[in-house]
Write a structure and sequence with these properties.
Number of strands: 2
Strand content: under 5%
Distance between the termini: 40 Å
Structural class: mainly alpha
Number of helices: 10
Strand order of the largest sheet: 1-2
Mean pLDDT: 81
């Protein structure tokens, strides 16, 4: 068991060529699974849906088990928000008929993936480490977009609507997030109005966060040894929070 855990740890967290290839393969499979999650509200009535659903459940269960074994402290790993989200997604996959109305939350797997090192290690290796915050903000926005789209489709547009209803839900979500508000599609009743308010407020916040990540001056991630401040100017010699001398390495070296 000890050798197995060491092997899994090297594959999931290592920096060797074999580990990076394994992490890239896992990331590609994850993205395909997320694409299925995005389309699952429309595909739910298809005969093959349950077969695909249970197959993905087996893959996700194997991945969760492997990640748990690769962790240094399994109980602590299980308490992490990303682990809780993955376990909840696995539960919706194992009980797709009982938890059908919560299936739209499976898209949170994209948020869980963005919190792992699988995306950031290749970016840093290819010289795009400075884009980490931009990519992170974009993924948060995309995750919110499809989670809300799935919610609106499930609770407002699902009955007899199929793909056209899903497109209407996506269209309404985008117009609400951007506060365009064409008015040709409205959610009925008090709960529809409250849902629209939440989408507008959260959507604007996420758009502003993405714009800040793109346009504000570039900063590097370098934890201050004394106060822990994470982001500093590239040429900073002292921490702006506590004044501790910094030795930020030159990215070109």
């Amino acid at each position: 068991m000890g050798r197995l855990r060491a092997r899994l740890r090297s594959l999931y967290h290592g920096h060797s060529q074999g580990a990076l290839r394994f992490q890239l393969a896992v990331m590609v499979v994850d993205l395909l699974i997320i694409a299925f999650f995005v389309a699952s509200p429309v595909l739910r009535e298809r005969p093959s849906f349950l077969w695909i659903d249970y197959s993905i459940a087996a893959l996700l269960a194997a991945d969760i088990a492997a990640r748990a074994l690769a962790a240094n402290d399994i109980p602590r790993w299980l308490r992490q928000p990303t682990s809780v989200v993955d376990l909840f997604i696995l539960l919706t996959l194992l009980a797709p008929l009982w938890l059908a109305n919560l299936g739209f939350l499976r898209v949170l797997r994209l948020w869980s993936l963005s919190r792992s090192g699988f995306l950031w290690r290749p970016l840093a290796r290819w010289g795009y480490g400075s884009w980490r915050e931009v990519v992170h903000s974009a993924l948060n926005l995309v995750t919110f977009l499809f989670v809300v789209t799935g919610f609106i489709y499930t609770f407002f547009f699902r009955e007899g609507s199929g793909f056209a209803g899903y497109v209407d839900a996506l269209y309404y979500t985008v117009t609400s997030m951007t506060t365009t508000g064409y008015g040709d599609i409205l959610l009925p009743g008090m709960w529809g109005k409250l849902t629209s308010v939440v989408i507008m407020i959260a959507g604007i916040s996420l758009f502003i966060r993405l714009a800040q990540a793109i346009f504000r001056p570039y900063k590097v991630r370098y934890p201050c040894p004394q106060c822990g401040l994470q982001r500093h100017d590239p040429d900073a010699v002292h921490c702006k929070a506590c004044g501790y001398p910094l030795k930020i390495p030159d990215p070109d070296e």
